[in-house]
Specification:
elongated, 8% strand, two-stranded antiparallel sheet, 55% helix, Membrane-bound Lytic Murein Transglycosylase D, Chain A
């Protein structure tokens, strides 16, 4: 493997960053604190260290021995860099700079080695030091390093923004779920209270009907046939019971039932079927805030009114089909407001545009209006994203 140290041969900004971690700044509260007050090592040198420190002494000693340490270290660093040994090349250049801190060519060479190792911050620092030593820095090399630094900052900012957006979306989804659960809890509590009230009312009604029936039988036995013409017919009694059963105050809220009491009196079970069907529709969480109208004719249930989306109409049909005594359900008169007026929807996990179109319109092929209204596709849907469902009729 060979690497040519050339200011134009700079990796692209998208290349992997292999730079070594930098030490934390001194102002960082999490930075490690070191104690450098330990005892020094014992030296066995016979000569005192001259002015300029040991690096200068080593340089002078090498020159006395007939060596040219600065140029030899520079050449070694260049050879190691060309062979791909960037760490060894950096070490040679650092040794050289210890002996000759003002060697601008060595600092420029060190900057190029940092570029080859994608150590962009070290490279820009080395370029600045080379320029301060009077060396002309190639503009292309500086521009390339600055571009990579800018790309690093941009990538880091994009990652932070993406993480922040994901966290905000998750927080919104959790808040929406918490609101939904609280709403369901309130509704269930209210529904339980209503059911308890209905049970007590039906218990008193049953007791009253039983008492009246007993009195009627006793009166019939004592009075005989003289009051026969005043006795109501079984059909009239059944009609009265049916009217009471289907009275608005005895039915769940949100569901309107249309039935002919006289016709149902011929089959008293029909009244119970109608009341049971209305109760089933009212207890379904999916059908909250709907305005359904139920009409029962024999074993046939006819649905009318309005629902927000197609899935609610389908739920109502399935619930009615499960009611004993109903064999057929006609929901052609139900108005789906999502098709006529539009709606709003928040994306859930696993949603696609086909699922959303089927849920609201009843047709999984009607995805184009949703795509056009929101400028989205199934590929870039995000959980928690608010969509506008436009009307299609």
């Amino acid at each position: 493997m060979q690497i040519v140290i050339d200011p134009i041969s700079v990796p692209s900004p998208g290349a992997a960053n292999a730079r070594e971690p930098e030490p934390a700044p001194a102002s960082d509260p999490h930075a490690l604190q070191f104690d450098f007050d330990g005892s020094s090592r014992a030296s066995r040198s016979d000569q005192p260290v001259p002015l300029g420190g040991l690096p200068r002494a080593l340089r002078e000693a090498a020159e006395v021995a007939g060596l040219d340490p600065l140029n030899e270290l520079y050449n070694e660093a260049l050879r190691y860099a060309q062979e791909g040994h960037l760490r060894l090349s950096r070490e040679r250049l650092q040794m050289l700079l210890c002996m000759a801190p003002d060697d601008g060519q060595a600092r420029l060479m060190l900057a190029r080695v940092h570029v080859a190792g994608q150590r962009w911050r070290d490279a820009i620092a080395a370029l600045d030091e080379a320029a301060s030593c009077g060396v002309t820095v190639p503009p292309a090399l500086r521009r390339a390093v600055e571009d990579h630094l800018q790309a690093e900052r941009s990538n880091a900012e994009e990652q932070r923004e993406a993480l922040r957006a994901r966290e905000q979306g998750e927080v919104r989804a959790l808040r929406a779920e918490a609101r939904r659960l609280r709403s369901e809890q309130v509704q269930l509590t209210g529904r339980a209270t209503d059911l308890e009230r209905e049970v007590r009312k039906w218990a008193w009604s049953t007791l009253g009907v039983s008492t009246l029936s007993g009195l009627f039988i006793v009166a019939s036995l004592f009075l005989g046939g003289g009051t026969a013409e005043a006795d109501p017919t079984p059909e009239a009694i059944a009609a009265a019971e049916t009217e009471e059963l289907l009275a608005e105050e005895n039915l769940p809220e949100g569901v309107k039932v249309e039935a002919d009491p006289i016709e149902m009196a011929k089959d008293p079970l029909s009244a119970n079927v109608a009341a049971k069907a209305a109760q089933v529709l009212s207890n379904a969480p999916e059908l909250e805030d709907t305005a359904l109208e139920l009409k029962v004719k024999g074993s046939k249930a006819v649905l009318g009114g309005e629902v927000d989306r197609f899935s609610q109409m389908r739920t109502a049909e399935d619930l009615l089909k499960a009611v004993q005594g109903i064999d057929h359900v006609d929901a052609t008169s139900v108005v789906i407001l999502a098709r006529t007026q539009g709606a709003a929807y928040t994306v859930r996990p696993g949603d696609t545009l086909s699922h959303i179109a089927r849920r609201h319109y009843g047709d999984s092929q009607l995805t184009k209006p949703i795509e056009k209204a929101n400028k989205v596709s199934s590929k870039n849907l995000r959980v928690g994203q608010d969509l506008t469902i436009p009307p299609v009729e």
